[in-house]
Amino acid sequence: MATRTSAAEMVSYEDLYARWEQGNWKTSELDFGQDREDWREKFSDLERRAALWNYAMFFHGEDSVATNLTPYIDAAPREDQKYFLTTQQVDEARHAVFFARFMSEVVDTGDSIAASLATTQPELSWGFKKVFARLDRMADELRRDRSKPKLAAAVTLYHLIVEASLAQPGQHFIEDYLGERGVLPAFYEGMQNISRDEQRHIGFGVKVLSDLKDEDPEVPAAVAEVLREVIPFATAVFVPPNWDERYITCFGSTMVEVFQVGANSLDAKLRAAGMPPEELPGGVPLESDLSSEDRAKRGIAFLRGNLLGEKNGPPSQDPELLEMYFDSIRRGLSQAYDGAEPITLQWDFRDAEPWHLQIDNGSSKVARGRLESADITFRCRFEDWVDTSMGRADPRRMLATGRMIPRGNPRTLWRARSLFSR
After folding, report:
1. Higher pLDDT residue, 414 or 279?
2. In the listed set 287, 304, 321, which residue is the last one of a domain according to the structure?
3. Dist CA 367 CA 94 (whole Å)
4. What is the pTM of this model?
5. What CATH number should be reported for the domain holding residue 87?
6. Radius of gyration of the chain (CA)
């Protein structure tokens, strides 16, 4: 019987390096003269604000990844992996210079890279700041720990979340409207070059994750852990200022469409690396059994309802939204629970109606109301539970201060420990 060849096995590190040599381009040769004219004459005020918001995140992202890549090179276990990563660092620096030139020569943000970075800093979204702060910490962690699981977590954050699920959808969004309208020709050419570079980087990330998974059994758990931590932040990256969706619709797309592309890309890359989301230990918040449109709509609803993303007030208790939220909890905890015996969970909220969850032999159901008895009962405010479950509050601090109290006999709590290590 023939063995199935994975997508990661169909490309080699040598091939990826050769593609880099073949695809080299020079940002210094781009002429932004027509772009400067188009920016002033063919973009409306709204379009300039929207484009600056989007392009600023790319500019700061490229600046960050260019300087954060060094510990990845040091941690890579193979020479051919190190060689490719050095080409990627050159690419990222070139991308940062490209955006710096555009900002300075077209948008007039300053006459130096530092000035342009400072001028565009206010454009960065809450989600962007959270993701890239985590990337900074990940680089520091990788300097101290060069193990294969830590490298896999770092590659997941950099190559799959930042590049595949955030940058790639943004690049397609920008290229589509620039190509359709025939504007900003030098910027359009540069974005096409960057897309080809990023596709190569993402291919490397998928391959190295596949190799690391085959070499160390702890890799899937490390990948799942960073996904659980960062996906709630990554989901909020493309929330426009003041929730003004015209920042996206003015260029012919919608938030749902952008979110769909990002979620589909991350899902596809994990599968290509041999780690389907539904098989990762402890579960990850990707809800792969939902359609990409439903996932996108659900994520946006959670963001709007203060259940996810930047906290702008108490979480909504809209009944329809709560149904979706507790359905997501059901999916996540059912996947995370690794006990053989059935288990029931009860939420007794001080500021909202109670809910309960029953998990039995792989099936689960969640509903409003109280059970006559439950294996574990959480007593807390609904707002505190949301903040903890979505990564906005430290669960250890919640437990230590008594703001969240799980009750159950010690044996049951131990049996359900996988639910508390998320």
Report:
1. 279
2. 304
3. 53
4. 0.91
5. 1.10.620.20
6. 23
